[in-house]
Amino acid sequence: MEDSNDFLRLILDSIAESIAVIDELGDIRFVNHSWSQFGSDNECAAAQDWSQVNYLSVCDGAALAGDEFGALAGAGIKSVIDQTEAYFNLEYPCHSDNEQRWFIMRVSPFSLNKEHFFVISHQDVTERKLAEKAVEKLARRDGLTNIYNRRAFDEILNEQWLQCLSVKQPISLAVIDLDHFKLLNDTYGHQTGDDCLIAVSALLKNFARRTGDVCARYGGEEFAVIWSYTTLLEAQSLSQALLEEIRQLRIPNERSPIVPYMTASIGLVEMTPNRILETRDLIAQADDLLYQAKESGRNKVSSLIVIPSTAIQGQN
Ligand SMILES: Nc1nc2c(ncn2[C@@H]2O[C@H](COP(=O)(O)OP(=O)(O)OP(=O)(O)O)[C@@H](O)[C@H]2O)c(=O)[nH]1
């Protein structure tokens, strides 16, 4: 029994991976139960009789219909057939109408009686892929406030910068720093400080609602907001409103020399991206302006519009 073809077929039919064996021309010579099942579950045209199917033609057909993974799969299988590659692996999305799915295709060769065959397997890796995506998402969030962290912010700023460059629109960046936060921590404890950071983050989200707007926790008690396609005038009014809402939270900071509740300072800059300026110029300029706001009494916005070769400065 153990030596029989039936025994081997039962083994292949019992595994979850979809397996087909093709010859050097790409003609399918064997499929297991999972392969046929997947075909009928997904309404593949060839589902009825896989022995009539040339798998390379299936890949070429998908490629012609604009499926980039069909093209990659076809090229990969051919590379193993012509022995350019020993094996081929391809991870690809294959979403159905109601669920997201990812698969990995593996191609490996074997020979029998001087004839060459190629095992093609497709394994569902959706669970791992979703876990990876969840981890990726977490890695972009600040653990305390759940808004974007600095890493994600830097990536998004670069993307938005390029967007604004391509449409020749201004981008404004606000760097927001809480005033005398150390006094708040020292007076009321670290937990109260954390609660304050969470409350300010919640406010920030309301100021970053349009497409191209992003807020993030940039450092300890420092936050940043990108307002894409936004002039300094508009950004100044948003910044003033933000400072007012932070004041209106009335988070006690009784030892602050400004007022006995939490305030913040903002360095705000507008640039219209060009080929000379870079995102680090935007950040450096906003940092300088924040420093100026702090030095000139805190609880205010220091702003600047950078036009190549000139700059207009304001404080309010
Ligand atoms: N509670 C809490 N405190 C933090 C966190 N990250 C940084 N801090 C505190 O933030 C404080 C920042 O202090 P400073 O850099 O002196 O700034 P500041 O007291 O706000 O003074 P100015 O910015 O000059 O107005 C430090 O005491 C840090 O320990 C955090 O996640 N939670």
Automatic annotation (TrEMBL):
PROSITE patterns for this protein: GGDEF (PS50887)
Reaction it catalyzes: 2 GTP = 3',3'-c-di-GMP + 2 diphosphate
Domain of life: Bacteria
Domain (GGDEF): residue spans on this chain: 169-306
The enzyme's E.C. designation: 2.7.7.65
GO CC, one annotated term: plasma membrane
GO molecular function: diguanylate cyclase activity
Any single biological process term in GO: negative regulation of bacterial-type flagellum-dependent cell motility
Cofactor(s) named in the record: Mg(2+)
Gene3D superfamilies: 3.30.70.270, PAS domain
SMART domains: GGDEF
PANTHER family membership: DIGUANYLATE CYCLASE DGCM-RELATED, REGULATORY COMPONENTS OF SENSORY TRANSDUCTION SYSTEM
Protein name as catalogued: diguanylate cyclase
